[in-house]
Design goal:
585 residues, alpha/beta, Nitrilase/N-carbamoyl-D-aminoacid amidohydrolase, Rossmann fold, 2 domains, 19 helices, 20 strands, 38% helix, 19% strand, binds nicotinic acid adenine dinucleotide, binds adenosine-5'-triphosphate, binds glutamine, NAD, NAD+ synthase (glutamine-hydrolyzing) activity, ATP-binding, C-N_Hydrolase, Nitrilase/CN_hydratase_CS
Length: 585
């Protein structure tokens, strides 16, 4: 029975920061080896960060990434990690083009390379645009154990390289991932990894990135399962982690590892590095398998939003954020997220009352500031609005929107003066139906809740306050902001319900139309009122231009607006009741 100590390094890489990422890899590998690890696995594209988009096509970047992996190999040996097998995701480049690759590093050099075979090209992924798929499957014999490597999408396909590895015979498979967070995806992943391990009849180590890159959040959720599909250990979501696990590997049939050549379409390439397991560091502690309890749906989404915002702020070099506080639920939830993400001392809230602002909008905003301890100021916009309205002769909707735009100018002025990142507070429901003022409340550099439906915004607010209650802390969100009826307050007594269907119904239709991608007939067949469907679908389609100009924000759903759902702006196709001819067809 061979025993291997594995370390799964769930790290937060930064796109483009080759030297910073390589230092992180060396530090983590050193820590893993000190903990006795003989095999250390890092996530997909950890050296470059992920996704790198068109940087993959930039020759200077690809050349630098390929050079950096050799530097990492040397640095690993100097750091005392030479005896270990260290597997690192990086950007390779050969005569055929860029590769999404894994380097197998041992004894100060790259001993093997694997190029991802299945390139995802749906949802947020565009890997056909960037990479050339691999056709070679290396199996490295290390410490008498045959180790195969695959990358992320490879395990999501039924006829992927794992079935070829199973046919060729391996003792252990390492899967490197850049798998972005979506609600409840951890359950899907857990089942998938267990199924693949059972098919292989060998343990699988699944290592994912953590942290955010623009609109994507990586939740980690790294895990290791045995050949029966039983989970041995799992990392917590949304934090960096080093998961150290001992694997007992049954004696291997020597004949099995003799096979070379092709099993499926891939060329199998076997290399022997060592027959004996390298010794563990003398003072290595015992490895204790762990698996944290799963997070509730609200806790998971909250953590995703906090991570998305925190990393956007930090990785783009901001120290402070600012936002308008209206006393309403959206700005209150965004403010609470900000406080959790960067700390109250780095959050600047501005109340900007107009002549239509209610008393409670001002008192609820002040209450929020008091509860959270963020920096708070009041900047009335009455005089600015009056100048625009009088000089330009504005009325009706034009006058309403000028209020939102005076607030935008105020926030941008303060941002330029004081250096804050301005946050837009719109939610997914508003974005869907175009219920925001372009260049007004849609202004900002980042939009933390743009993928959160309005009904879920309320759930998050309730959850965050309940969490504070549980911890014996002040509730961050004023209860009145949660319970009062939503209003944009752009004219006297305006209510969201004057212009929009009620939010639970609206979100149900949007869920079916946007996430479910259903057409008019499907929506009506699902039981939604035909006139309501027609109205909502029209609003969604007509607001495409507004969404294109909305700031980026964290994806949490299966289908976020933006890269997940790309529709033409100029578009005469309208979902409608089928014509008699269409029905006959
Ligand atoms: N296809 C297209 N491509 C490029 N631009 C296009 C366009 N179609 C219209 N436009 C332009 O867009 C502009 C109209 O859009 P916009 O100025 O936003 O105005 P609009 O969408 O007409 O009005 C804003 C709506 O959002 C509501 N609102 C505002 C503020 C906050 C909230 C809230 O509760 O959060 C709600 C407000 O009550 C109103 O119903 C015009 O300049 C028009 O020319
Ligand atoms: N009086 C105000 N003072 C400061 N900011 C405001 C004010 N009114 C609106 N805003 C900003 O514009 C955003 C849109 O506000 P509005 O009240 O129109 O819509 P909402 O979607 O109901 O948002 P909220 O729930 O935050 O009120 C707010 O979240 C806030 O950032
Ligand atoms: N990086 C990838 O290949 C990701 C694709 C995969 N289906 C996932 O989201 O987990």
């Amino acid at each position: 029975m061979a025993q291997l100590r594995m370390a799964l390094a769930q790290v937060n890489a930064t796109v483009g920061d080759l030297r910073g990422n390589s230092s992180k890899i060396v530090d983590r590998a050193r820590q893993a080896v000190e903990a006795g690890a003989q095999v250390v696995v890092f996530p997909e594209m950890v050296l470059t960060g992920y996704p790198i988009e068109d940087l993959a096509l930039r020759r200077s970047f690809a050349t630098a990434a390929r050079a950096e992996i050799d530097v990492v190999a040397e640095r690993l040996a100097s750091a005392g990690c030479g005896a270990a097998l260290v597997v690192i995701g990086y950007l390779d480049h050969d005569e055929k083009g860029p590769r999404n690759a894994a380097a197998l590093v041992h004894d100060g050099r790259v001993v093997e390379r694997y190029a991802k075979q299945h390139l995802p090209n749906y949802g947020v992924f565009d890997e056909f645009r960037y990479f050339v798929p691999g056709g070679r499957l290396p199996i490295v014999r290390f410490g008498g154990v045959d180790v195969g490597v695959v990358i992320c999408e490879d395990i999501w396909r039924e006829e992927g390289p794992t079935s070829e590895l199973a046919a060729a015979g391996v003792d252990l498979v390492l899967c490197l991932n850049g798998s972005p967070y979506e609600r409840a995806k951890d359950d899907t992943r857990g089942e998938l990894v267990a199924r693949r391990a059972r098919e292989l009849g060998a343990p699988m180590a699944y290592v994912n990135l953590v942290g955010a890159q623009d609109e994507l959040v990586f939740d980690g959720d790294s895990m290791i399962v045995d050949g029966d599909g039983v989970q041995l250990a799992r990392s917590p979501q949304f934090v960096e982690d080093l998961l150290v696990v001992d694997l007992d590997l049954p004696p291997r049939d020597a004949a099995r590892s003799a096979g070379r050549g092709a099993v499926g379409t891939s060329e199998i390439a076997r290399t022997t590095l060592s027959e004996a397991v390298p010794p563990m560091a003398a003072d290595a502690p015992e490895a204790r398998p762990v698996a944290p309890p799963p997070l509730s749906e609200e806790a998971e989404v909250w953590a995703a939003l906090v991570t998305g915002l925190r990393d956007y702020v930090a990785k783009n070099g901001f120290r402070t954020v600012s936002l308008g506080l209206s006393g309403g639920i959206d700005s209150a939830v965004v403010a609470a997220l900000c406080v959790d993400a960067v700390g109250a001392d780095r959050v600047h809230g501005v109340s900007m009352p107009s002549s239509y602002s209610s008393e409670h909008s001002k008192s609820d905003a002040a209450d929020l500031a008091e509860r959270t301890g963020l920096h708070y100021r009041v900047e009335p916009i009455v005089d600015m609005v009056r100048v625009f309205v009088d000089q330009l002769g504005l009325s009706g909707l034009a006058e309403e929107n000028v209020q939102a735009r005076c607030r935008a100018v105020t926030l941008m002025g303060l941002s330029n003066q004081e250096g804050h990142l301005v946050l837009a507070t719109g939610n997914k429901t508003e974005l869907a139906v175009g219920y925001s003022t372009i260049y007004g409340d849609a202004v900002g550099g980042f939009a933390p809740i743009k993928d959160v439906p309005k009904t879920f915004v309320w759930r998050l607010a309730e959850w965050r306050n309940a969490e504070a209650r549980r911890r014996g802390e002040t509730l961050p969100i004023p209860p009145n902001s949660i319970t009062k009826p939503p209003s944009a307050e752009l004219r006297p007594d305006q209510m969201d319900s004057d212009s929009l269907p009620d939010y639970p119904m609206l979100d149900a239709v949007l869920d079916a139309y946007v996430e479910g991608d259903q057409g008019y007939a499907d929506l009506v067949a699902a039981g939604f009122d035909a006139a309501l469907v027609e109205r909502i679908v029209r609003m969604v389609d007509a607001a495409e231009y507004k969404r294109r100009q909305y700031p980026p924000g964290t994806k949490i759903t299966l289908r976020a607006f933006g890269r997940d759902r790309r529709l033409p702006i100029t578009n005469r196709w309208r979902e409608h009741k089928p014509t008699p001819e269409q029905e006959r067809a």
